[in-house]
Amino acid sequence: MNLMASWRQAGLPTALPRRRPGCHCGNDAGARTGHHLQVGFHHTASEAAALVAKVGSPGLSYMLDTIHMHIEEASVRHTIEQHARQIRHFHLCESNGGPFGSGAIDFPDVLDALRKGGYEKFISVKIYRELGWEQAARTAAERILPLLSG
After folding, report:
1. Theoretical Cys-Cys bridge with 68: which of 37, 76, 97, 137, CB 3.0 to 4.6 Å?
2. CA 138, CA 113: separation in Å to the nearest integer?
3. pTM reported for the whole predicted model
4. Beta partners for 122?
5. Residue 59: count of CB within 10 angstroms of its CB
6. Considering the chain, what percentage of its residues have pLDDT values greater than 90?
7. pLDDT tens digits along 21-62
8. pLDDT (tens digit, 9 = 90+) per residue, 96-106?
9. Residue 113: which of 146, 90, 136 has the closest Cα?
10. Would you give the DSSP letter of residue 123?
11. Rounded to an integer, what distance in angstroms lies between the CA atom of residue 20 and that of residue 100?
């Protein structure tokens, strides 16, 4: 069963997926979709996990993002450890969207929680305030790469 059929069978609204006509075709070809907490269906990682379970398609998963967990979750670390094996992608983002080190996220703790939770997929960085892309990439590399080798 493709992703759209699973979505409809679960009784979920289809307005958003219909705007993305390639969604079911990509699933049929083996593509995998990751659901981001920010899209408005839900706010917490548990709500995202419940949506993925309700759809029941291997083509749909969810991702975690430190900025959203900082806002919505009681414990960033506990949330990561609880969901690390189920998520398909992970965003590292400072609590204020700015350069790493300018906010309240404890990145060594986040990366430790990912390791201990068994996460073995991709991690990306997201900086969308104050810096151009070159400076953002350089700053992220300087702050995050040393933590990954530990």
Report:
1. 37
2. 24
3. 0.74
4. 89
5. 21
6. 36
7. 444 444 454 444 454 555 556 789 998 899 889 888 888 888
8. 988 888 999 99
9. 90
10. E
11. 33
Q: Which residue has the higher pLDDT, 22 or 89?
A: 89
**Measured distance CA(70)–CA(126) in Å, rounded:** 14
Pairwise CA distance, residues 27 & 137, whole Å = 31
Structure tokens given for 25: 């075709």
Token pair for 61: 């998963």
Tokens 């986040």 sit at which residue?
Answer: 110
pLDDT at 43: 82
CA distances from 65 to 15, 69, 136 (A): 24, 6, 17
Domains of the chain plus CATH, in order, are 32-148 (3.20.20.150)
* Residue 123, strand partner residues: 90
The two structure tokens encoding residue 110: 């986040």
